[in-house]
Task: inverse folding
């Protein structure tokens, strides 16, 4: 797996390279356990990210399994990181939300964050269905995991979704480059949490950031 850094792999190719079944790779992708994203309705994998993931797995193999880290939303989200977005396009909504997240003290290069969020979305859609997208990046210029939430007043129709439901909730996550496990656990946590229709509906009906924050931090 030492080809061009921007090479994209299919589930079949990843399964062959890792010597596991295609179903195993699919399950890992669905659970957020392997770096992956969707282009349209199919999973795709960036070869350089898979190589990095494999290297980390192998380097950690002799050690005891790392215990899952509990995700405490209050530690990574604050009310001022919740934005009500009026834009009607994916690009403009992502730029606004990344601009908000870029002011967090954990983010040392706001322009890089915005640029990488847009680049990531152009490569693979981060929409996961049910009107949700989870744009995310890991960068060396980030000191610790942090997030912003966008609640869209308009449907973002230009997101590639798996169920044809327009995106209205954006969960943007940015992490340090060495936070791979915590990063994946956070992606999985919000993917699972927002499967609950009651939570999604309450967020869309919320009228201010404080109300939305309480909904998201209610354990």
Result:
């Amino acid at each position: 797996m030492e080809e061009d850094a921007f090479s994209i792999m299919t589930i079949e190719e990843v399964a062959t390279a890792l010597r596991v079944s295609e179903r195993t790779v699919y399950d890992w992708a669905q659970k957020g356990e392997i770096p992956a994203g969707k282009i349209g309705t199919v999973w795709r994998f960036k070869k350089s990210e898979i190589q990095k993931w494999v290297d980390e797995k192998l380097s950690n193999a002799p050690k005891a399994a790392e215990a899952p880290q509990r995700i405490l939303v209050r530690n990574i989200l604050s009310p001022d990181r919740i934005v009500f977005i009026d834009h009607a396009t994916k690009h403009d909504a992502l730029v606004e939300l990344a601009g908000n997240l870029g002011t967090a003290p954990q983010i040392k290069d706001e322009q890089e964050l915005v640029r990488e969020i847009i680049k990531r979305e152009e490569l693979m859609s981060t929409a996961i269905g049910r009107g949700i997208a989870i744009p995310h990046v890991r960068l060396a210029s980030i000191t610790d995991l942090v997030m912003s939430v966008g609640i869209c007043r308009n449907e973002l129709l230009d997101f590639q979704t798996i169920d044809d439901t327009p995106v209205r909730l954006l969960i943007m996550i940015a992490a340090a480059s060495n936070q791979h496990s915590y990063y994946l656990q956070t992606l999985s946590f919000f993917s699972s949490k927002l499967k609950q229709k009651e939570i999604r509906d309450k967020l869309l009906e919320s009228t201010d950031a404080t109300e939305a924050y309480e909904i998201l931090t209610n354990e």
Remarks:
- The first helix runs from residue 11 to 18.
